[in-house]
Amino acid sequence: MSLGVEFEAIKVERESIVNGHHRYVASILVNSKLERVPWTAPKSMTHCTWNKIALDANDWESDLEIKAHNERDALRAGLNVEVFNSLLEVKKDS
Fold it and tell me: What residue segments make up the domains of the chain, in order of their start?
């Protein structure tokens, strides 16, 4: 997001995020706005408020999962994955 990669809108029902909670948190961390589109939540969805959510700084995804995310995001940005990864490294170092 901080590199300008476009992400799909988050799906919301009233004030509840149905799909896109990771994108929502990431957008807050990099001070970016994401489009919101109306969506119907499944009946099984548990509704909660964000002030009751504890964020964990640990990265719980495997290296393989992160690699897959980076490949998807590079494709979305129209970049070669090696170029995309080098941009991530530059951003991380700054």
Answer: 1-55, 59-94
